[in-house]
Specification:
homodimer, 2 strands, mainly alpha, Cytochrome Bc1 Complex, Chain D, domain 2, two-stranded antiparallel sheet, elongated
Chain lengths: ~350, ~350
């Protein structure tokens, strides 16, 4: 009996020890997750439902018109360019090209960034030479490598030639006497783009559902935070809030093998400090928007992440780290609003 | 009293006469409508729900893949051409150009016909040099002015590089060992296009609802029948069933002011009888698919109708006749299937 009792005691001890190890592990994993969540909430905040603007309030009539105009090729020189040409929604509003091709096969100076969540940024375009999505739309219609129209007047003339637009502009801008203007075109397209917020399962995580990210994605988020990626790519859009030199530790072209060296924001400001400075891009849907960087010089997200570590943070991320960061970044692939996935019918010519 | 009675009699006579005129008119209008409907049913028949093919049965998985491939630019040389480039659904699957612009700004030889209802035709393309919608899709990917790929193998290689396509092709062609082939691409796109039937209020008329067409549209239909437009443009798709010389009474270019003279089907057959012969286009949605004719040389539907009367029928239709025929033709503007108006998300590169 003594032996049996001693044996029972031993078994009990083992069970208690194992249980306590298990519970400690569980608790510490929970603690770790809770800690990660807390940090993440501080770093990323909450994704809004739409990217509102006081100057351009979102109305359903403006969004309706804006979505139609988004597909309108007939207001471009040559009739082949629309917003959707470089930002096809089915490709997460990028075109898969290194640099977009506009009217008459003109090559755009930089890679087409996605317009999903883009209205949440401090400015538009890689070098911040467009104030906001409205300004981007406005300037595109006369941009030589994009729509290439000779003047705003020429755009208005084309719009007025298509009978259906009169009523659409009137409904979207009811107090305007002569609503077909390029400013209103820009506001309508801007209003549409301001609806293009794409929540993902990372947002479920941020709302407290710790299971919304798997172990690898959480590991990636942790590495992403600890490696200091959040120095630039933070906030609800995971970037888009500041400018930064591309290549802090080493020249970027050494790693991207870029064909041309782009002076970045220097082109806009002519300030030496802005040499090779670019707007920090948003990383939402980054798993769907290859190729990467301002010149689309890198095809694979894994390579882009490693290069960023190397030249922005001075860190040589190992394969496992890169892979888990990529897993985290892919958790930012979001849901495109249903209405934006519906093709609008365009007004006919007469 | 006699006077009064005589007066009453007179009033009664007038009432009876007016009533009988009114009733005769009503009855004759009804008779006329019934007669028109009967003729129309004989001439146009019934629009099917889908344009089926024994060789390529429509399945939901094929249609799903086909719709994705329809938007796929990454299988074209230069990465800017997809089916949707020349056939954007929002523009009733035409591009509004005289002649479509393909890869590297190459100009296509003829105007892009709509692909709505196109699978119901005897062949594809203006000169019938594509057997059907599947053949059209297959040849497009290597067509020099369209996708411009160097070979079918190059297309397959591109598709295989994009991870998501493996599963999509497997589901669409479950018994194939190696389902990613250009034949299957063609079948999938073809299956999608075979769903693109667009019923309009003309079809409600054909089903017996005489009120579905207004007076002007019915007048136009009557003129359309009496002027012999139905010699070629008949059947459920209102055309697409035969080849015909363009310019029977006079050379077409005299009226269309075409920049080049197109020899039409002669290019395919080298048969002298096929000089200036083209496939009779379908007229469904013709009110939405300007510009007109094989070279898009005519912008206005009114002009196109008048020219057709002149050079095909030897008839100088007057303004009123042209206007009512146009009103009838616009009653052929149909409803695009809801699923075709939803943008599919494309597989990402990795």
């Amino acid at each position: 009996m003594q032996k049996v009792r001693r044996g029972s005691k031993n078994v009990l001890t083992i069970v208690v020890v194992l249980l306590s190890i298990f519970l400690t592990h569980l608790l510490s994993a929970d603690d770790e997750d809770a800690d990660l969540l807390k940090k993440a909430i501080n770093i990323f905040g909450t994704l809004p439902q739409a990217m509102t603007s006081e100057k351009n309030p979102i109305t359903s009539e403006k969004v309706k018109l804006g979505k139609i105009l988004f597909y309108e090729t007939r207001i471009s020189v040559g009739g082949t360019v629309s917003c959707a040409r470089c930002h096809p929604i089915g490709l997460y509003a990028t075109d898969g090209l290194r640099k977009s091709i506009g009217n008459h096969c003109k090559v755009n100076p930089r890679n087409a960034p996605t317009i999903l969540n883009a209205a949440g940024q401090i400015s538009a375009h890689w070098i911040g030479n467009r104030k906001n999505v409205e300004d981007q739309a406005r300037q595109s219609v006369i941009g030589p490598p994009s729509f290439g129209m000779p003047s705003y007047e020429a755009v208005v003339k084309k719009l007025k030639e298509m009978k259906g637009y009169g009523e659409l502009f009137k409904k979207a801008f009811p107090i305007d006497n002569d609503p077909i203007t390029v400013d209103n075109l820009a506001k309508a397209i801007g209003a549409f783009e301001r609806t293009l917020v794409t929540p993902s399962h990372f947002d479920s995580f941020l709302k407290g559902d710790i299971t919304a990210l798997n172990r690898k994605e959480k590991g990636g988020l942790k590495t992403y935070i600890e490696a200091d990626c959040i120095m630039c790519h933070s906030g609800p859009y995971v970037g888009g809030q500041m400018y930064e030199t591309f290549g802090i530790f080493e020249p970027y072209w050494k790693y991207t093998k870029s064909e041309q060296i782009d002076e970045g924001r220097y082109v806009v400001t002519k300030n030496d400090a802005d040499q090779y400075v670019f707007k920090v891009p948003i990383l939402r849907n980054v798993g769907k928007t290859a190729p990467y960087f301002h010149d689309g010089s890198v095809d694979k997200l894994e390579n882009a992440v490693w290069i960023m570590g190397k030249i922005q943070l001075g860190k040589d991320l190992n394969k496992a780290q890169v892979e888990e960061v990529v897993a985290f970044l892919k958790s930012l692939t979001g849901i495109i609003p249903e209405d934006a996935l519906k093709i609008p019918l365009l007004p006919s010519m007469d």
